[in-house]
């Protein structure tokens, strides 16, 4: 299709010929016999009956009265095709007029989806580019079909069949229907490993995201084959082996074979484990003037004689890089050099500090985030456009993004920028579900009976990185309600600010009941990667009621008469966490220490100090046996010399010493066994967990044995009459038992059965407990 004309202008004579191919063809060509500019007086649009001439003119780069060239014709034609409204475009010049002739695509009147049951219309319409009142374009339809097929593949329906149908409705419009045959969901029958000699297939299957189909696969969706998940599984295997001494580990291949008869995959990983190494001599060398290598030697996490771990090498690089950068060398580079000694099976590591090339960040480009906002990802970087490029800052940002738990995978790469000293940072992420629904149950003696609890949690609310949690629990005599919200970057700083609202109702005791409600405002700040601090303001109102106040012991008669009671306090906590994962950790320490001062108004005036720590250690890699030890304690005292209120003293619950109910041990009034709480407590616990024998490890069940011990003693509540309370001495309680822990689709759940073997006669026993498993 050629259109040409010659016309005289005040500037020059230009002979222009434009050659274009329709959208059914491929490309648009334009050529001129002279490379000089020309001017037109007007634009004549023909064929745009429905779209309108102004829509065509707005897509052109050619304007009457201004110079244009052949390149402007090329660009204008391409922009017209890009709108999707036209199947053919022809451009010519006649005298001083630019003539644009278009053939219009049909318009879509309505889009419907037929046959879809697993994905709703509302979700499908967001996946297609074709829109009502938009153009009907064959190329756009083909792209829509591919998007829909990908969406079904993501839910395990790779054999979905999708076709389109159109129905004319007049005036150049059509109704468009996507006809979907969803097919059957593919499953994963087996996940096999070959070449693994040191770790069993069961152990390796527990490390990867992809799981064999099971009872709850329809909820977890972990049995869906996906090429990206397979690559992530390969990386999980590498990291596991690299961190357990196998520096030569390789995944030779991974493949998935689909059986058309059963619609099930068999996935096989072929691995080469290699030899297991320990660290040899470790040294730091520096070629940067002013950087003393000897001062950096103590920063290395890799130690001679320890099992080789890639994460120790990375941690060493991180610490050395931070120290060198803070000393005024932002472009310094830390490079590890490993030297294998096959005879001794050791790897010596030399950390070389040298002056890297100067580079600056041109831009940070984020890709793949479908729900998480760009700024949520960008704020995890300690550098921005124009800053000095620092590889360690990139690595640290990657670790932060992975710890958020928002993404299946995080990959950060670089590419050259617009100048030799410019670098473009590419961040590729894959979003994952961040909402959880938790359920739990328990049974308590002493009249409480069965307790049910449920919670809904979202840690990336609306893609903004905000955390929100709503929970409720209750039984025959108790009700508990909680709402929590956290903004992780308050006012643009790395400060986590939030609030907690709560209300608890308890009618456990025969002669009285109580309800407490209130809120806390908190701000948390990181001190380093493992340590943080939190400051809170706490407000609580406690209301005691009784239908038979004379039947109560004297302290409780006073709290009923004085209700409601207000407590206003400030508290400060230091939290330390090096756990490898929050769910079923295998190594690391989690600890906290808290001090609270009450007396900012209200009815309570005290100082409390409490703390707890738990450490995890893998006792057997091959058997996946994990041991843990914990200890805790606290003390409260009056700041005015007056007696404490009953509700100011410590109470231990059924998680502190298993085998005893909430408020089931410690000082009590002899009348009605009313619990007083205590001024001091100590607890210790030892536990070992292991995969449940006879149960596939992929099912997520683990067994455990534990030993708990502790005491709650002391009393500072004024006793005006009656017999003195019992249990105020430092008598030890202890229990032993077994647990079943399940990494369920609703979160980690556990069942504990404990038998107290050290107890007092007035203690209240609770042998069986259901609940949500926590690392603390």
UniProtKB/TrEMBL annotation:
InterPro entries, A to Z: Bac_surfAg_D15, BamA/TamA_POTRA, D15-like, OM_assembly_BamA, POTRA
Keywords (A to Z) from UniProt: Cell outer membrane, Membrane, Repeat, Signal, Transmembrane, Transmembrane beta strand
Membrane in keyword set: yes
Places the protein is found: Cell outer membrane; Membrane
Signal sequence interval, chain numbering: 1-37
A Pfam family reported for this protein in Swiss-Prot or TrEMBL: Omp85
GO terms of biological process kind: Gram-negative-bacterium-type cell outer membrane assembly; protein insertion into membrane
Record-level GO cellular component terms: cell outer membrane
Residues in POTRA domain copies: 38-105, 106-183, 186-274, 359-432
Keyword Transmembrane tagged: yes
Family note: Belongs to the BamA family.
PANTHER family according to UniProt: OUTER MEMBRANE PROTEIN ASSEMBLY FACTOR BAMA, SORTING AND ASSEMBLY MACHINERY SAMM50 PROTEIN FAMILY MEMBER
Subunit-level organization: Part of the Bam complex.
Function: Part of the outer membrane protein assembly complex, which is involved in assembly and insertion of beta-barrel proteins into the outer membrane.
UniProt protein name: Outer membrane protein assembly factor BamA
Species whose genome carries this gene: Rhizobium setariae
């Amino acid at each position: 299709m050629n259109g040409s004309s010659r016309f005289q202008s005040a500037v020059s004579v230009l002979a222009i010929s434009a050659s274009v191919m329709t959208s059914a063809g491929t490309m648009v060509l334009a050529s001129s016999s002279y490379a000089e500019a020309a001017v037109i007086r007007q634009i004549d649009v023909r064929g745009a009956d429905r779209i309108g001439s102004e829509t065509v003119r707005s897509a052109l780069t050619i304007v009457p009265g201004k110079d244009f060239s052949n390149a402007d014709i090329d660009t204008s034609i391409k922009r017209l095709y890009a709108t999707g409204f036209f199947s053919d475009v022809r451009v010519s010049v006649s005298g001083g007029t630019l003539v644009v002739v278009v053939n219009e695509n049909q318009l879509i009147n309505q889009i419907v989806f037929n046959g879809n049951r697993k994905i709703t219309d509302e979700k499908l319409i967001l996946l297609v580019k074709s829109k009502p009142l938009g153009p009907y374009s064959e190329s756009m339809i083909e792209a829509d079909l591919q998007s829909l097929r990908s969406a079904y593949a993501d839910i395990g329906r790779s054999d979905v069949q999708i076709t389109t149908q159109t129905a004319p409705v007049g005036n150049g419009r059509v109704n468009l229907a996507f006809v979907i045959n969803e097919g059957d969901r593919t499953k994963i029958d087996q996940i096999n490993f070959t070449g693994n000699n040191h770790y069993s297939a069961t152990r390796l299957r527990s490390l990867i995201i992809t799981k064999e189909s099971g009872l709850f696969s329809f909820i977890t969706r972990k049995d869906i084959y996906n090429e990206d998940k397979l690559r992530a599984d390969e990386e999980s295997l590498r990291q596991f082996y690299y961190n357990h001494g196998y520096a030569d580990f390789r995944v030779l291949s991974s493949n998935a074979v689909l059986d058309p008869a059963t619609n099930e995959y068999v996935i096989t990983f072929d691995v080469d484990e290699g030899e297991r190494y320990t660290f040899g001599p470790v040294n730091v060398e520096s070629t940067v003037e002013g950087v003393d290598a000897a001062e950096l030697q103590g920063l290395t996490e890799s130690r001679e004689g320890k099992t080789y771990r890639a994460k120790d090498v990375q941690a060493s690089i991180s610490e050395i890089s931070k120290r060198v950068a803070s000393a005024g060398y932002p472009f310094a580079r830390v490079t590890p050099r490993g030297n294998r000694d096959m005879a001794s099976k050791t790897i010596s590591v030399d950390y070389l500090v040298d002056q890297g090339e100067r580079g600056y960040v041109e831009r940070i480009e984020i890709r793949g985030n479908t729900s998480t906002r760009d700024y949520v990802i960008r704020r995890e970087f300690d550098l921005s456009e124009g800053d000095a490029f620092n590889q360690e800052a990139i690595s640290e940002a990657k670790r932060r993004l992975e710890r958020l738990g928002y993404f299946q995978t995080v990959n950060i790469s670089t590419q050259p920028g617009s100048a030799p000293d410019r670098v473009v940072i590419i961040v590729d992420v894959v979003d994952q579900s961040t909402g959880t629904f938790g359920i739990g149950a328990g049974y308590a003696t002493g009249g409480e009976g069965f307790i049910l609890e449920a919670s809904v949690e979202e840690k990336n609310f609306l893609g903004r990185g905000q955390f929100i949690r709503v929970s409720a629990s209750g039984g025959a005599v108790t009700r508990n309600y909680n709402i929590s919200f956290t903004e992780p970057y308050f006012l643009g700083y790395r400060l986590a600010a939030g609030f907690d609202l709560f209300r608890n109702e308890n009618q456990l005791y025969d002669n009285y009941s109580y309800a407490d409600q209130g809120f806390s405002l908190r701000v948390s700040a990181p001190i380093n990667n493992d340590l943080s601090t939190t400051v809170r303001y706490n407000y609580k109102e406690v209301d005691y009621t009784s239908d038979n106040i004379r039947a109560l012991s004297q302290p409780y008669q006073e709290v009923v008469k004085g209700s409601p009671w207000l407590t206003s306090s400030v508290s400060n906590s230091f939290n330390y966490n090096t756990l490898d994962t929050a769910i079923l950790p295998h190594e690391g320490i989690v600890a906290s220490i808290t001090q609270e001062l009450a007396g900012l108004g209200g009815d309570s005036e005290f100082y409390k100090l409490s703390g707890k720590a738990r450490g995890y250690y893998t006792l057997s890699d091959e058997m996946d046996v994990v041991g843990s030890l914990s200890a805790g304690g606290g003390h409260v005292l009056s700041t005015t010399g007056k007696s404490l209120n009953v509700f100011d003293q410590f109470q231990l619950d059924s998680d502190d010493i298993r085998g005893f109910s909430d408020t089931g041990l410690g000082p009590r009034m002899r009348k009605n066994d009313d619990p007083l709480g205590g001024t001091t407590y100590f607890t210790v616990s030892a536990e070992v967990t292991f995969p449940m024998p006879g149960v596939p490890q992929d099912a997520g069940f683990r067994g455990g044995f534990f030993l708990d011990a502790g005491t709650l003693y002391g009393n500072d509540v004024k006793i005006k009459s009656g017999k003195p309370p019992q249990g105020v001495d430092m008598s030890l309680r202890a229990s032993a038992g077994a647990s079943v822990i399940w990494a369920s689709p609703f979160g980690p759940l556990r069942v504990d059965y404990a038998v107290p073997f050290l107890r007092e006669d007035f203690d209240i026993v609770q042998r069986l407990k259901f609940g949500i498993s926590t690392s603390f």
